[in-house]
Amino acid sequence: MKRNVGNGEKDDILESQNYSCNKCGRAIDRQKHREGGVAYVRAEFHHQQMYADGGSSDADTGNIIALCHNCHLRYTRQT
Predict the structure, then answer these.
(1) Chain segment 34-76, per-residue pLDDT in tens
(2) What is the DSSP string of the chain?
């Protein structure tokens, strides 16, 4: 079982979430940039079920979500 999420899987996750943070909806992408008047922040990828507890790193399982930095900090402090 792998832990790291590959670039293709990251792209798939971002596309499935419409390039929005899974928690707050902020515009996110693989790199910070501006496009069409929208400021995108760098996405961070989070295992909903920790890898150490048997959580999968495969994007198609739904265990990996993309978050903005602020939500990732809040989310990881809760778990």
Answers:
(1) 999 999 999 999 887 766 555 555 655 678 899 999 999 998 8
(2) ---SPPHHHHHHHHHHTTTB-TTT--BEESS-EEETTEEEEEPEEEESS-GGGT----GGGT-EEEE-HHHHHHHHHH-
pTM as predicted: 0.82
Task: Give the β-pairing of 44-47 and 38-42.
Answer: unpaired
CA distance 58 to 38: 29
